[in-house]
Amino acid sequence: MDILADIGATNARFGVQAGPGKVDRSHIFKCEDYETFQDAYRAYLIHAGIAQSEVKRAALAIAGPVTSDHIRMTNHPWLFSRKAVQKELKLERFVVINDFTAVALSLTELKEEDTVLIGERGRPNPDFPIAVLGPGTGLGVSALVPDGRGGHVPLPGEGGHVTMPAYTDREAEILHVMREWFGHVSAERILCGTGLVNLYRAIATIDHKELRQLKPENITKAALDGSDDVAVETLMVFCAMLGTVAGNLALTTWSRAGVYIAGGIVPQILPFFKRSPFRDRFRAKGRFENHMSAIPTHVITHPLVAFLGLEASLKCDRY
Fold first, then answer.
1. pLDDT one-digit tens code per residue, 55-64
2. What is the per-residue pLDDT across 129-178, written as a single tens digit (0 to 9) for each?
3. Answer CATH for 113-301 from 3.40.367.20, 3.40.50.10890, 3.60.21.10, 3.30.470.20
4. Choices 3.30.420.40, 3.40.50.150, 3.30.750.24, 3.40.50.10580: CATH for 2-104+304-314
5. Residues 6+ apart with CB under 8 A from 113
6. Hey, how many other C-beta atoms are within 10 angstroms of the C-beta on 25?
């Protein structure tokens, strides 16, 4: 039996691989409720009625860099040794990859109904890379590169921590305020759940407005129903700056096969996102605007997209 797990800074999602593209007995646990990954894993086995001896392999996607045996999450205190966990849990094989490496591996497995097109269809070229980024608890970034043999290789990285650029004078004001708070303002300081709060605070500070919304879910709700002008601008700026970062990623990796938006935030605001400045900002690359217009952008709506990538990772000797 194979266990799949997608571990973010907030939630730990587990399931049993049940055939190509199929996951059974999926369940979500709160990471903060467990001291270690192993504790959450055992809690899942009990919940699913699975004996530890039944599990031969496990694949884990985790929100943090995977560069050695020692794994430390970026926005959560869990840390562990891959070899030690494999021995402790008596697994024949234990695959650990970055969560957005898993999302990247899923891109060639997605069906049309798993995504929503944003803007024009463009002219995708499958001989080039595919890029993916996703605002959630943090900001994940990856790409899938053709290997020249009909397959693809995921490009791991920590692109969420690149320096956030300003496209407009208003954005420059916002970044100026945020630099006073954080020093370095990465893309993740803005393009994630807490980033929405940071944006809201910065805009309210600049305009001398009352801080009415200080939770991401409240900001998006107030923006969608139009009850708070600061929240509306916050979400508009969020979408625009996501377009800037997505366009930069597409140019850097020359992802002419397409750019995909994953994560938990954008699928919840799809009608707003479609009419936001995202696509215009994505294309706004000066002399390369025509090239950018040819690159399609999609939002991934598949509820367990990382599991598709984890399934692929178990088939590959690379991990």
1. 999 999 998 8
2. 999 999 988 898 999 999 888 888 888 888 999 999 999 999 999 999 99
3. 3.40.367.20
4. 3.30.420.40
5. none
6. 14
